[in-house]
Amino acid sequence: MKNAATFLLGLFIALSMFPSCSKSSKNSSQPTLYDSLGGTAMVSDPANSGQMIEKGRLGIRSVVDSAIFVIAGDDSINPYFMTLLAEVGANNFSGFNALSKNLTDFFCVGTGAKDYTYSGLSMSNAHNPATNHRISNKVTAGAFNEFIVDVVIAANKNGLPANLTASVGRVIESQMSVVVQR
């Protein structure tokens, strides 16, 4: 689990290296992490009949959605998501869908996708109950590390290769200093 946590931490670190969350203008001949996750090849979207989705985005969304469910079952960190859990318990999936889209956009941009932007709150504001009523408490280092473990579990459930899981982990880890606020 420690290697998986390191991977996810790396994912957050890589994301934090992006000065803005806008379309990438990188014209490198080297494939991005997004390319390694499936890139821009269009595939049928299993969640939206008759629609197409980039394979990289579908892979990221699959891991994100799985991670949300893993976190929901993790008593050590699910108290941070009480608003979301209450909504889902009442068959209201609007918050789930918004979180899924925001996290998917965030990871798409952070892994090198060129066709997406992240327009959500800054990581600091998103994880501060004073600026985001959807989070119950300021995040601790322990909760952040548990989040990484849960994302690794989700990545494994979706068959993400270990080297890509580690890269995603570095992106996640890069965000620790702004997410952990107590």
Automatic annotation (TrEMBL):
Keyword Signal: yes
Sorted UniProt keywords: Signal
Signal sequence bounds: 1-22
Database matches in InterPro entries: Globin/Proto
GO molecular function terms attached to this record: heme binding; oxygen binding
Top-rank taxon, per record: Bacteria
Keyword Signal among UniProt keywords: yes
Protein name (Swiss-Prot/TrEMBL): Group 1 truncated hemoglobin
UniProt source species: Dinghuibacter silviterrae
